[in-house]
Design goal:
CATH topology: NE0471 N-terminal domain-like
Strand content: 25-35%
Low-confidence stretches: none
Number of strands: 7
Protein name: DUF2442 domain-containing protein
Helix content: 10-25%
InterPro entries: DUF2442 (IPR018841), NE0471-like_N (IPR036782)
Number of domains: 1
Organism: Shackletoniella antarctica
CATH class: Alpha Beta
Number of helices: 2
Length: about 90
Amino acid sequence: MKYPKIYKAEAISDRILRVIFTNQDVREYDVTPLLDNPMFAPLRQPGFFRSFNLEPGGFGIVWNDDVDLSEYELWKNGTIAKPGVGLSDGI
């Protein structure tokens, strides 16, 4: 199965990302379960957590060379947002 790419994303708290995919799905992804992994420990810092960029082509979210999440991970393990929920910019 081909998974949708990321269209837009934002941090809606110090641990949760809201992601809109190219197929119009909106999902929320809580990074809390990842924080026990040393690779993801920097995400505990709110400033770092909010400083991500989208990978060109919508293939993931990247914080630095060591910390990233793929579109597959965000789509597969994110929870479906309530209907009518989009990003803060109205999309």
